[in-house]
Amino acid sequence: MADLLIEIGCEDLPAGSVKPLAAHLGKTLFDVLHKAELCSTQPRIYATPRRIAAIWPDVTIQQPDQHVERKGPAVAAAYVDGEPSKALAGFLKSANATVDDLSTIDTPKGEWVVLKQVQPGRSLQAVVADAMPDVIKTMPMPKRMRWSDYEHEFLRPVVWLCAMVGTEVLPLSLLGLQSTNTTHGHRFHSPDAVVLANASDYADVLKKHYVLADFDQRRDLIQQQVSKKAESLGGTAVSDEALLDEVTALVEWPVTVAGQFEQEYLEIPKEALIQTMQENQRYFALLDKSNSLMPAFITIANVESVSVQTVIDGNERVIRPRFADTMFFWEQDKQKKLADHQQSLGSLLFQEKLGSVGDKVERMQQVGAWLANRVGESEAECQLAASLCKCDLNTEIVKELAKMQGIAGRYYAQRDGYSDAVAASMEEHYFPKQAGGKLPEHGVAQVLSIADKIDTLVGIYGLGMKPTGAKDPFGLRRCALGVVRIIIEKQLDINLDELIAESITTYGQRLPTDFDPQTLLDYITERLKGYAQEQGYSADVIDAVLAKSLSNPLDISARLRAIDEFRSTEAADSLAAASKRSGNILKKAEKASLGVVKPELLVEPAEQKLYEALQSIEPQIATDLKQRDYQKAMTATASLRDSVDSFFDNVMVNTDDEATRNNRLGLLHQLNKLCSCTAELSRLQPKET
User: Fold this and answer.
1) How far apart are CA 49 and CA 446, in angstroms?
2) pLDDT in tens, 629-674
3) 184-212 confidence digits (pLDDT tens)
4) Cα separations (Å) of 203 from 46, 76, 140, 206, 289?
5) Exposure check for the chain: N or C terminus, fewer CB within 10 A?
6) What is the DSSP string of 427-466?
7) Short-list 599, 594, 605, CA closest to 649
8) Do the Cβ atoms of 494 and 377 come closer than 8 Å?
């Protein structure tokens, strides 16, 4: 057994493809080798801008021989007058065997012909050679290219191919190249070919030639270097996982370099400067102890320069024009107040059939006022915030830096003297920006965020432009989940059906007449279901609550907590079974028979006991439901367990006497209604023992 190494060397890969390509190489070929019983240990992955590679430890050079038993025709059908029949002859031909190779076995259906053969195992070289074309073909590449006069395709031109098993070259012909035992070091520090003595030496040898091939190791080193350099400068580097991944994919030998820029640029909102540094230059911005931006940055070079100052000067020189442009846009925006951009929102298209962004803002104002009255926020502030929240879309800084949308609005609203709540809502009404993202903190921003999202949901969904598969261009899934999370986590008492209805009225005649609001409510409820699952609620608990056809997420959340707690009690299984049983009985009964229970017709002690128990707790449960104290209501419901068990053990509901039967059906109806007041208990599954 030995280590298997395959390395594909190429011209510099796009940063976003470096690690996925290497991971695909490692996993896909491992699946093939594992199935072929040649490898059982997961590979080590290596990825740099100029190479993707993997090492599969302890591979076997040859597959074990396989003992194969093939069943042929029945003995009775295998021979005719002592000679092989057509069926047997065909079987022998397909197996490339003779009659002398056959034997027989006894089965419950009689005696059958069998052929026992030894199938030689395939070599590692043959398995890998057969598998690699498909491995390459299925690699995740946004676009493939050809180079020179080759027919082969890859993301970038392939320059070398290294394949070894232990100390030997594994012969491979791939992408127009023949495999060798040579790799290449750093482009500048060690440009010549490097011969490998053993596949297991790969990472150590490359490190001596200024290539840190392990992506994760390189990433950790960069993070440590950046933190250490930032600390030496008296600051903290702005943490950004995506930036760290991208920088790691751009270098093979990371070297930390710090630079500075002029203090005057700090007048620009720090978010704009950070975005420019990260996205345009892949720099790490620095914050001081007060969380203010420092006039400095850290970058990662791919070379140990003998003239470090030249590298620093070059990086400082390229960032200045970008900051100068951003300063120009900032200065231009200073000449207008945020509200001055309101009129021009009419020229920005929201959606062709739904009107402009200005139209959307007017709808948001109306829904925002309705929401403000529901949750106790200032209607005037909510309408003011709605009128301003999209104005920064027409500012110069947002046109240049799209991610400043909302952030710029906050700065400009603060500059213009608006209240903290209004200013914060300029940015926070876009929250949450991604799954699990932070929610708006201010009440005005919460109202605005819901108004914005429900307007998008009603408009786009109303036009029939529902998300399909991975396609969701208007972010309806994010909008729906955002509405659910804000209502539940910020404890807002809002009915979704009423919210949807209010939003529909703001659209006037823009929506199709056949739009059914229930379909949108169902869509949002599905997102709520997924949210509940992420919170740890079991499928049957969620099903039991949502079966009530509720539309208030806050109310649904309270019921979920109550049923989840009730689910762990001893009474849960008993009452769930009783609810299911009574429900089945009531389905077969005529509605006319489900009248008011007459106490004088209750003759059995068990039914009398159940009636008394129901009468005792019903008023208290009604009060609990009104106060949404579902946990208290379920505690009271749990007290029915003994009475319910006794009733079903001792009372026959469908007795021959009609009056008695109807009275007992009425009692069951009362029981079923009470048990289902918080959730449909019949949907709960028995607890696993």
Assistant:
1) 44
2) 999 999 888 888 899 889 988 989 888 888 898 888 889 888 888 8
3) 999 999 999 999 999 999 999 999 999 99
4) 8, 64, 25, 5, 39
5) C
6) HHTT---STTPPPP-SHHHHHHHHHHHHHHHHHHHHTT--
7) 605
8) no
